[in-house]
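DM between two lab members

TW: hey, do you still have the DUF427 domain-containing protein entry open?
JB: yeah, one sec
JB: this one, 158 aa:
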Amino acid sequence: MNPSSRVAPQPGQESVWDYPRPPRIEQSEKHLEIMFGGMLIVDTRHAWRILETSHPPVYYIPQDDIRMDFLTPAKLQTFCEWKGMASYWNLTVSVKTSGHAAWSYPNPVDAYLALKDHLAFYPGKMDECRVNGEVVMAQSGDFYGGWITHDIVGPFKG
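TW: and the structure you got?
JB:
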């Protein structure tokens, strides 16, 4: 990926190439909804947004705004150089399951302490994710969980 192929943002848009490294964390009051298996499993206006160079935003949602009764801890863990050790979650609604559908940082490093008790979801593993009513496009690749909307321009890593 070459930042020289950066898409110039129009008014009201953000370029992922203007996001910082290390990632910035900021509160978001955008209305986020996630549908899976015919159920609304997330409905919030209280998320945190992580912004990192070349990545679309990743939203971390408080567990109080998630139907946690549909989620079970998975055995997978990974390490993020910025946030610490990540734990993964499986999602099951009725007979439909999505493995490693979400992740969290149970004990994030101090700079990202706000992410404790929050989960991020892979939009490509959900039936539908929405930001202020707009259906999200998933960031390419199995490892990345960015949410792409009309106001985010790339090119994107993945």
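TW: got it. Residues 140 and 158 are 5 Å apart (CA to CA). The mean pLDDT is 96.
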